[in-house]
């Protein structure tokens, strides 16, 4: 039981991190192109994303699982097709807001290319809002894998996973420790990942860093002003 919990925890975290990383790269690129260029490009991308998000993901997974035996990379690639859209709207809004700022116009006037402006000037300002959503995307990826394993459409039979342990607990109600152990491990893991994601967001937030620096230098500035006034 402990061995299956450890391996299930490792597979869940690895699957969530890899899927979140790939989804973030694709979603940030798509949202950056939409927000920076706008116009007909933004309109066409938005219509495509609305149609793509309307597809029944769970039904497609069930149909494809009945045709092909799923494995780790197969599930990762299939879920990547639908998970990248979660960040597009946030990044698009940040790029739409920042593309008319003075520093972007100055960089464009100095001859910087669109790719340079997007990567070096606009993207760092959009990362704070992006990092806010990453913990929820990570938890959603782990929950999706657990749900598929619980329904029998996830990893191959016999693979150690938290969803498979929950299915065992459901099938063996006379042994409640099976389901309860997997449930508490899953709940604690998701909570800790949220806390870690919030800490990473705070660490990379430039506004919070500036606020801490101004708070730290505030008493020194006040003391200097008092000393200067006394000298006068």
From TrEMBL:
Subcellular localization: Cell inner membrane; Cell membrane
Residue span(s) of domain ABC transmembrane type-1: 9-201
Transmembrane segments: 12-37, 73-91, 128-155, 175-197
InterPro entries: MetI-like, MetI-like_sf
Primary subcellular site in the record, as a coarse category: membrane
Pfam families cross-referenced by the UniProt entry: BPD_transp_1
Membrane topology: Multi-pass membrane protein
Annotated keywords: Cell inner membrane, Cell membrane, Membrane, Transmembrane, Transmembrane helix, Transport
An annotated GO BP: microcin transport
GO CC annotation, single: plasma membrane
Protein's UniProt keywords contain Membrane: yes
Signal sequence coordinates: none
Family statement: Belongs to the binding-protein-dependent transport system permease family.
Identification of the protein by name: Oligopeptide ABC transporter, permease component
Organism: Azospirillum baldaniorum
């Amino acid at each position: 039981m402990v061995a299956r919990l450890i391996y299930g925890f490792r597979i869940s975290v690895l699957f969530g991190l890899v899927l979140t990383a790939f989804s973030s790269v694709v979603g940030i690129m798509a949202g950056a192109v939409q927000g920076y260029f706008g116009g007909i490009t933004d309109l066409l991308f938005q219509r495509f994303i609305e149609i793509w998000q309307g597809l029944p993901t769970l039904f497609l997974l069930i149909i494809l699982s009945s045709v092909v035996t799923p494995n780790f990379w197969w599930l990762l690639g299939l879920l990547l097709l639908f998970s990248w859209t979660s960040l597009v709207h946030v990044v698009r809004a940040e790029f739409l807001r920042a593309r008319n700022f003075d520093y972007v116009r100055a960089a464009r006037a100095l001859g910087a290319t669109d790719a340079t402006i997007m990567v070096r000037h606009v993207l760092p300002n959009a990362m704070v809002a992006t990092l806010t959503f990453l913990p929820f995307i990570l938890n959603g990826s782990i929950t999706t894998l657990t749900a598929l394993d619980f329904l029998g459409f996830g990893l191959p039979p016999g693979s150690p996973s938290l969803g498979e342990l929950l299915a065992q607990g459901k099938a063996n109600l006379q042994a409640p420790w099976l389901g309860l152990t997997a449930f508490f491990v899953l709940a604690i893991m998701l909570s800790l990942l949220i806390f870690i994601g919030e800490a990473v967001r705070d660490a990379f937030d430039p506004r919070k860093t500036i606020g801490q620096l101004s708070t730290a230098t505030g008493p020194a500035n006040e003391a200097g002003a008092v000393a200067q006034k006394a000298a006068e």
